[in-house]
C-alpha cells in the first residue's frame, strides 16, 4: 500500500515538473516570436510560434501563427508587385476585431504595407506610362528626349520586383536610344553626302547642257527679226523712232541685207511724202556681225 502511494506521488511530481517545463518553453517561444514580429523577422516569428503551439495548443499561439503567416505573405506579395494581394492580406489584419497583443504589433505594420503598396503601385503605373512615352519618342527619332525619359526611369531604386523589371527595361531602351541615334546620324550623314554628290552631278550636267545650248545657239543662224534688231543696236536706233529697219533679201554670201530708212512727210495735210534711205547693211546670220553692205 505504501509503495503504491509512493508511486502515485512520484507520478504527480513528474507531471507537475513536465508541465512546468512545458509552460516555460511555451512562454519563451511566444516571447521570442513577439520580439521577432517587432523586428519584422516574420519567418523567425512563425518558427517560434510553431514551437509554442507544439508545446501547448492554445488559441493565442494559433492566432499568432496565423497572423504572422498573413503579414509575411502580404510583405512577399508587395515585393513581387502583387499589390492587390498585399493590400487584401494587410487589410484583414488591420480590420481584425480580435483583441491581441500580436494585433497591436501588426496593425501599424499592416497599415504601413497598405500605404507602401498603394504608393508603389501608383509609381509603377507612372513609370510604365513614361516608358511607353519614351518608346513613342524613340519611334519618332527623338532620341535625346527618349533617352532622358529612359534614364530617369532606370535611375529609380527599389526592391520591388516589378519596379526592378521596369528599370531594367528602361536601361535596355536607354542603350537602344543611344545606339539608334548613332545609327541615324550615320545614315543621315551618308544620305547628305549622297545628296551633295547628286547635286554636284546635276549641276555639272546642267552646266554642260547650258554650254551645249550656248554653243548651239552660237552656231544657229539668227532669224530676220533678230538680224533687224542687231542693226538697230548697231546704229543705236530706238524701237519707237520713225526710222524703219527691214529685211530685204539674202546676198550671194548668205548674208541678210537690211534696209534702214525713214519716211519724210512733204505735205502734213495729205501726209504725202517719200522715203529717205539711211543705208543698207549686211548681217552674217551665224557670226552675228553687222557691216555696211556696200563696203
From TrEMBL:
**Coiled coil spans:** 107-137
Name the InterPro entries for this protein: TPR-like_helical_dom_sf (IPR011990)
Key words, A-Z: Coiled coil
Upper classification of the organism: Bacteria, Bacillati, Bacillota, Bacilli, Bacillales
> Has UniProt tagged this entry with the keyword Coiled coil?
yes
Query: What residue stretch is flagged as signal peptide?
Result: none
Q: What is this protein called?
A: Lipoprotein
Q: Where is this region: Disordered?
A: 197-225
Amino acid at each position: 500500500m505504501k509503495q503504491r502511494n509512493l508511486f502515485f506521488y512520484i507520478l504527480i511530481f513528474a507531471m507537475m515538473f513536465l508541465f512546468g517545463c512545458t509552460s516555460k518553453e511555451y512562454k519563451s517561444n511566444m516571447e521570442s516570436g513577439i520580439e521577432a514580429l517587432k523586428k519584422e523577422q516574420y519567418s523567425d516569428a512563425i518558427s517560434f510560434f510553431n514551437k509554442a503551439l507544439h508545446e501547448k495548443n492554445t488559441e493565442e499561439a494559433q492566432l499568432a501563427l496565423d497572423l504572422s503567416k498573413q503579414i509575411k505573405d502580404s510583405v512577399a506579395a508587395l515585393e513581387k508587385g502583387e499589390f492587390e494581394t498585399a493590400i487584401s492580406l494587410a487589410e484583414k489584419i488591420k480590420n481584425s476585431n480580435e483583441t491581441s497583443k500580436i494585433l497591436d504589433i501588426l496593425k501599424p505594420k499592416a497599415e504601413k504595407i497598405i500605404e507602401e503598396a498603394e504608393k508603389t503601385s501608383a509609381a509603377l503605373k507612372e513609370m510604365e506610362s513614361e516608358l511607353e512615352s519614351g518608346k513613342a519618342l524613340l519611334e519618332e527619332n527623338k532620341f535625346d528626349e527618349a533617352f532622358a525619359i529612359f534614364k530617369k526611369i532606370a535611375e529609380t531604386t527599389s526592391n520591388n520586383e516589378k519596379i526592378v523589371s521596369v528599370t531594367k527595361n528602361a536601361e535596355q531602351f536607354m542603350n537602344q536610344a543611344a545606339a539608334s541615334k548613332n545609327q541615324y546620324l550615320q545614315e543621315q550623314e551618308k544620305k547628305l553626302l549622297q545628296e551633295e554628290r547628286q547635286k554636284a552631278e546635276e549641276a555639272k550636267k546642267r552646266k554642260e547642257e547650258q554650254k551645249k545650248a550656248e554653243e548651239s545657239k552660237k552656231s544657229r543662224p539668227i532669224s530676220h527679226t533678230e538680224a533687224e534688231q542687231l542693226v538697230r543696236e548697231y546704229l543705236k536706233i530706238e524701237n519707237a523712232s520713225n526710222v524703219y529697219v527691214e529685211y530685204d533679201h539674202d546676198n550671194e554670201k548668205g548674208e541678210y541685207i537690211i534696209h534702214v530708212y525713214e519716211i519724210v512727210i512733204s505735205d502734213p495735210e495729205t501726209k504725202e511724202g517719200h522715203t529717205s534711205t539711211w543705208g543698207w547693211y549686211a548681217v552674217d546670220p551665224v557670226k552675228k556681225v553687222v557691216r555696211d553692205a556696200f563696203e
